[in-house]
Amino acid sequence: MNPHVTRSRRFGVVAAVLGALVIGFFALPNAGVITEVSLESRLAGADGSRIGSIDVPILVVTLLIGLAVLALAALLLTVRLPDHVNVVGGAAVGLFVVAFLLWAARGDTLFAVDLARLSLRSAVPLTLGALAGVLCERAAVVNIAIEGQLLAGAFTAVVVASVTASPMAGAGAGILGGVVIAAMLGLLSIKFSTDQIVAGVVLIVFAAGLTSFLASQWLSTSPEMNSPATFSAVEIAGLSSIPVLGPILFDQSLLVYATLVAVVGLQVAIFRTRWGLRLRAVGEHPKAADTVGINVSRTRWLAVLAGGVLAGLGGAFLSIDAASSFTEDMSAGKGFIALAAMLAGRYNPRGAFGAAMLFGLAEASARALQGFDVGIPSQLLLAIPYVVTIIVVSGLIGRLRIPGASGQHYATE
Amino acid sequence: MTDGSPQPAPDADDEVRRLEQERAAVVDQDVRRTTGDETLVQRLVDAVTGPNVVVTLLAIVLALVIGAVLIAVSDAEARTSLAYVFARPGDFFGAAWTAISDSYGALAKGAVGSRNGITESLLAATPLILTGLAVALPFRAGLFNIGGEGQVIAGGMVASWVGFSASGLPLVVHLPLALAAGIVGGALMGWIPGVLKTRTGAHEVITTIMLNNIARIALSYALTSAIFLGPNNVNPRGLSVPDSARLPRLFDSRLNAGIIVAIVAAILLYYLMERSSRGFEIEAVGLNPHAASSAGMSVARATIFTLAGAGALAGLAGAVLGLGVAAGGITTGFSAGVGFDGITVALLGRARVPGTVAAGLLFGALSIGGRAMQAQAGINLDLVGVLQALIILFVAAPALVQALFRLKRARPGVTPGMTAGESA
In this structure, is residue B210 part of a structural domain? Predict the structure, then answer.
C-alpha cells in the first residue's frame, strides 16, 4: 500500500479522536462556562495595546475548534496530501492544545498573549538547534551533538557576558563555544571518519562533563562570573503597538529576531542559492558532487561550523536571555527536542521552525497549566513537552526522505 | 578394493594416512581459528598486545595529561604564578606540579590505596558495569541506548517499592522478588523505544532521552506521594527497605552482594552474545540489517529484544542501588547519573562484555578516587567526568590517537553498524 496514504489515514484517525475529545470532553459538559482570555501582556513592555480581555464562552468556541479538527481529520482521511500531512496533522494538534488550554482555564483568566510570547521564546533554542541540525544533515553529517553545543554556548556566553557586561559579547562567545564543539564534530566525523552518532554522543558527554567541572570549580567560587548582562526586549517602533501581534512578535529580544531572520535566511540559502544547491548535492550524492568539482570536505566543514554558530547562539539564549545564569545540564534535553524538530520539519528550516513552535507551545502550556486545575498533578504536566516529542517523532514523521549520503564518510579517491 | 585394480603398496598406504592426518590438523586449526577457539593464553596475548588495547591505554594517558592541564589551570596558586610565568617560570611549574601530583596522588590512593578504597570502588563500579552492559547490548544490534538513566530510575523505583511494601517475607524470597521487579520495571522502559522503533521508525536516541526526562519527572512526583513517602511525611525520601530485601553486605564493608549480581549478569550476557544463536543474530543485524533480514532473521525481534534487555540490565542497576546504597529510601538523585556513565563505560569497553566490565571497574575506581581528590586536593569531583569524556573521545577516534602517536592503523573504533538509512 502507498505509505503516504496509510500515513495520511493514521493521522486522520488521530485527528478524529482529538476532535471527538474536544467536543465531548471540553465543549459539551461546559455550557455557560466562561474563560476570560486576556489579550494584554503582563511581560512585554509595550502598553499601547490596551484592549483588555474578552470573555470566551467555552461551549461555543471549543465546539467550533472541535469541528475544525474534525474537518482536518476528514481532509486527511479522504484527500491525498502527501506533502502536507505534517502541516495538517500539526495544525490539528495545535488546535487541540488551544481547546485544552481554554478548558483548563475555565472560570479563570488565560493570558493568551503571554502564552504566545512564551511559546515563541521557548521555541528559540529549539529552532536554532534544529537549524544547526538541518545544515549538517543537508551536508550528510549527522549532528547528534546539538545538546553539547547548546551547553558549551551557554557556558561561554555566561562567562563573557559577566566579564564584559555586554550581552552582545556574550552572544559572540556563545557562538564561539558552539563552534568549538562543531569543530570537534567535524574533526571526528569528517577527518577521522568516526561513526557520526558515536561522535555526537561522545561530544555531548564531553561538553556536559567539562561545563559541569568548570561550573563547580570556578563559577561556584566566583559568582561574579555567573551573573551576566542579559538581553532585554527591544521594541520595534510602530509595530510593537499593534494589538496582540505587537507584544508577541515585535517586542522581543534581539536573539528572537535573529532566530526568525535565520529561519528565513536559511530557507532561501538552502533552496534558492548556488551554495545551497552544492550543499544538497554533497549531502545526496557526494561522489557526483566531487566529480563536478565541488569540494566535498570543505562544503561539509562549512556546514558543520555554520551549524555551530547557530547552536552556540541557542546556548547563549538559554543562559543570558531565557535565564540569567548558567546551571549544570541546563539544556535539559533541548538539543534532542531540536533534533526531533529537525526530523518533523523534514530537514527544511521552515518546517523545523514550525515543529519547534509546536514544542515551544507544549513547553509554554506546561508552565501555564501549573496554575490551573486539570485533574493531573501539576508536576506531571512538566513531562508534556517530552511526551509530545515522542508522539511527534513516532507519529508525525512517518517515512522520512533523508539526505542520500547521511552519516556516510566520504574520502576522495 | 576390487580385484584387478593395483593394490596400494604398504608404504603408499602410510602416505595416505599421513596426508589425511595432516589435512585433519589443518582443518582443525581452521575451525579453531574461525570459531575463536584458540588457547586462552594465545587469546590473552592477542588481546593485550592488539592495536585496540594500545589505543585505549594511550587514550587514558592522553586524557590524564589534559586533565593535568585543567588541574594546573584551575589551581589557585598555579593560576597566580601563571601571571608572571615568563619572569619566574619555576614558580608556575612548581605550583602546577604540586597541584597535579597532589590531585592524581589523592585520586590513586583514594581509589585503590586501601582496603576501604577498593571495596568502595567495587561498590561504585557495580551499577556502572550493569548500565555499561545496557548500552553495549543494543550497540551490538546497531542501536544506541541513551535511556539508561530513565531505566535505572524505573528499575530502582519499582524494586524499592516491592522492597518496602511487602513485609514478613524471608530474604531468599523477598530479595530476588525485589530484584526481579527492578528488572521488569527497567525492561518495560526499554521495551517502549524498541516497539516505537520497529513500529514507527522513531529513532531510539530521541525516544530514550525523552523517556529519561519523563522518568525523572515521574520520580520527583512519586517522592511527593504517600505511596512512596508513607503518611504524614513531606521529606522527599522514599520509605526504607527492610533487611529482608536488602543486598547483604560483604567483607564487613559497605560493599554489598550487588557486585555478585552484576558479575553473574555479565557472565550470562557473555554467553548470550558470544555463544548463542540469538547473540549471532543480534550481531548479524547490527552489522548489516538488510543482509540479516534476507537471511531470515528478524530485525524487529533483535531491536525489541536488545532494547528491552538493555532496560532489564539498567533496571537491575537501579534495583541494586535501591536495595543497596539507597536502601534507606530513594531520593530524587538516587540514580546519580549512572545511566549516562554507562554510555562512556560501554564505549570504552568497545561494547564487548569483558571490556565493559573492565571499563566499569576503572570508572568506579575513578569516581571514588575523585572524591578523595576533591576532599584532599580541592579539585572538583566533576573532573572525573571530564577525564571519562576525554578517554572515550580518544577511543572513539582511534585515527586521532594514531595520528598523534604515528601508530599503525588499528581496527576502526566503536561503530554501531548503522546503515545510512537508519541514522537520525
Answer: yes
Asked if A188 and B397 come within 8 Å (Cβ–Cβ), the reply is yes
Instruction: Taking residues B298-306, report their average pLDDT.
Output: 85
Q: Does the distance separating the beta carbons of B413 and A198 come in below 8 Å? A: yes
Q: Determine the structural domain holding residue B266 and report its residue range.
A: 119-348
- Tally the domains of chain A: 1
Do B143 and B205 reside in the same domain of the chain?
yes
From residue B287, how far is each of B137, B139, B325, B416 by CA, in Å? 13, 10, 39, 8
On whether the CB atoms of residues B218 and B156 are closer than 8 A, the answer is no
pTM: 0.82
pLDDT for the residue B419? 36
Write down the pLDDT at residue B261.
92
**Regions of chain A with pLDDT less than 70:** 1-6, 42-51, 80-83, 395-404, 407, 412-413
User: How far, in Å, CA of B70 to CA of B351, rounded?
Assistant: 29
Residues of B in contact with A389 (CB under 8 A): 206, 210
Residues 6+ apart with CB under 8 A from B419: B142, B288, B289, B290
Task: Looking at the structure, tell me whether residues B282 and B311 fall in a common domain.
Answer: yes
Is B313's pLDDT higher than 50?
Answer: yes
Question: Considering the domain boundaries, does residue A366 fall inside one?
Answer: yes
Q: Does B99 contact chain A (CB < 8 Å)? A: no
- Mutation target among A141, A151, A195 for the B interface, most CBs of B within 10 A: A195
Examine residue B400 and state whether it is found in any structural domain, yes or no: yes
Please report, for the domain that includes residue A266, its CATH number. Answer: 1.10.3470
User: Over the stretch B348-399, which tens digit does the pLDDT of each residue have?
Assistant: 888 888 889 988 998 898 888 888 888 877 777 888 888 888 888 888 777 7
- Tell which of A213, A284, A342, A379 to mutate to test the B interface (max B CBs under 10 Å): A213
Count how many domains chain B has: 2
pLDDT digits (tens, 9 = 90+) for A189-244: 888 877 888 888 889 988 998 898 888 878 877 888 888 888 887 777 777 777 77
Residue of A191, A213, A336 with shortest CB distance to B380? A213
